[in-house]
Amino acid sequence: MKFHVVTLFPEMFDSYLNESILGRxxxxxxxxxxxxxxxxxxxxxxxxxxxxxxVSAQIDERPYAxxxxxxxxxxxxxxxxxxxxxxxxxxKDVKILTVNFIPSAEKFTxxxxxxxxxxYTDVILICGRYEGIDYRVDKILKTKxxxxxxxxxxxxxxxxxxxxxxxxxxxxxxxxxxxxxEEERVSTSEIYTRPEVLVHNNKKYKVxxxxxxxxxxxxxxWKNSSRRWTSGGx
Length: 234
Description:
By secondary structure, this protein is α/β, with parallel strands linked by helices. The protein has helices at 14-18, 20-27, 74-88, 110-119, 136-141, 157-168, 216-225, and strands at 2-6, 32-36, 47-49, 55-57, 60-61, 71-72, 96-107, 122-126, 144-147, 197-200, 203-206. Helix 4 (110-119) packs across helix 6. 25% of the residues are buried. The model is unreliable at 228-234 (pLDDT under 50).
């Protein structure tokens, strides 16, 4: 699985992708993550070369009909995505999904992650900023729109990390044990480890006796009754 992230701030992903399971998956080439900054595709009056050689590229503009904040312009984003598609389409059997993040869109779930991991080889993730992206990006690129929750973030980088993490877990070999995928087993948020009795502020907190019983049928019943996860990842 290959992820291609269109973002103004690729450095935001460094620590998240370099550690733990995802870091290992990248090193073992189970997944790959690359970045494209849409500023590189700014042209015309929005790109300026200063006398000292520095280049500034304006990627946002005021919204038509007024309103607060600025909007990311369509052209640089479209060119960035088209550049990615042009490069990866040279390979055989490539199946591409382009994703944009909108708070009002369909909620992303574990079921969606499973489907994407099976159906596509490459996922392009567009990270918006400011007040959003010119809607013509969606019309021209025919993006799949997702939301990771009923709230607004300052950018699409965190949603992109969520999708990379969730989809990667479905890729063979990324997790050492298939059963580590919460959606493949009865999982509850009520879990315990050693010691059997935890003393805190002179009060004892014990592990439920059923978990110490060795009776697998009763343990599974207890887990079912305490279940917090669904196949949708909620």
